[in-house]
Specification:
The chain has a single domain, classed as Rossmann fold (3-Layer(aba) Sandwich), CATH 3.40.50. Helix content is 28%, strand content 13%. The protein is α/β, with parallel strands linked by helices.
């Protein structure tokens, strides 16, 4: 992949193109589509033509995208275009990335996407962060602010987070439902469409016997023995290999970003449900 950057803070990976996402709200459709050749924006003449030509042609935006676990799942689900937005540069993000504070994105810009996915930081609620919080560390709590922003768009959206987060549990997924090597339960608050519940499978083993792995941090600490069990059982050499294998992620190499990633299978399942609703 080749990448480049322009003044808007956007990196494109399609043929090394760069994209300018500074939309012009004075244009007839609320944005200047000529400045954004890589994504087909909802409401534009091009979008309507594509819808007429390709049934179900839809785009998505992934807020707080990280290295793109959810984005890849949405692409696998069938979205024609997926744009990632993160306040930090994400060198391993596989699609078009906009480095931007999402709370500085105008509502009219978000309205140009058919579907919105948001994964606000989970550390404020995560059990794994409890030791650091006990020592006084504070993490951003952005769920209410994110929900308020997305409700203003009137668009279908999903809020994803750990189960302890203050979101509705419209759906809870874990790795056993998708034959993954990680449990990684996540809750989803869903707006604007419905997703069928899916039953988890009875676990065939435990973390300690190597049937699953706990993808946490950089692989140190008291559960390191369980990593070795999983690695030995699956013929893997490193903790990075184990994280990738367990979540079926092959493009992320940074351990911290792997630990924060949403397994693509979760977003694929939800994305397919949305596309089926609007088909």
């Amino acid at each position: 992949m080749t990448s480049g950057r322009n003044s808007s803070g956007t990196r494109g990976f399609t043929g090394g193109q760069n994209y300018n996402l500074e939309f012009d709200k004075e244009s007839p459709h609320g944005c200047d589509t000529a400045l954004f050749p890589g994504i087909c924006l909802a409401g534009s003449p091009e979008h309507k033509r594509n819808r007429d030509q390709v049934e179900g042609e839809m785009n998505a935006i992934d807020l707080f995208c990280g290295a793109g676990g959810s984005s890849v799942g949405l692409k696998q689900a069938g979205f024609s275009d997926v744009l990632g937005v993160d306040i930090k540069e994400q060198q391993e993000y596989p699609f078009t990335l906009w480095t931007k504070d999402i709370f500085k994105i105008p509502v009219y810009t978000l309205k140009h996407f058919d579907f919105i996915w948001a994964s606000p930081p989970c550390q404020a609620y995560s059990v794994a962060s409890q030791p650091a919080k006990a020592k006084g560390k504070r993490y951003p709590d952005l769920i209410d602010k994110t929900r308020e922003l997305l409700l203003k768009t009137g668009k279908p959206f999903v809020l994803e987070n750990v189960r302890q987060a203050p979101i509705r549990h419209d759906l809870v997924l874990d790795g056993t439902m998708f034959d993954l090597g990680v449990i990684r339960k996540r809750a989803f608050e869903i707006h604007g469409f419905e997703v069928s519940l899916i039953l988890g499978k009875k676990r065939a083993g435990t973390i300690m016997d190597g049937s699953y792995i706990s993808v946490v941090g950089r692989g140190a600490g008291s559960i390191r023995q369980s990593y070795r069990a999983y690695m030995d059982k699956n013929g893997l050499k490193t903790i990075r290999d184990a994280y990738q294998h367990a979540m079926k992620i092959d493009w992320i190499t940074d351990l911290k970003m792997l630990a924060e990633a949403v397994p693509p299978a979760y977003a694929k399942y939800i994305g397919e449900a949305f596309l089926n609703c609007v088909a």
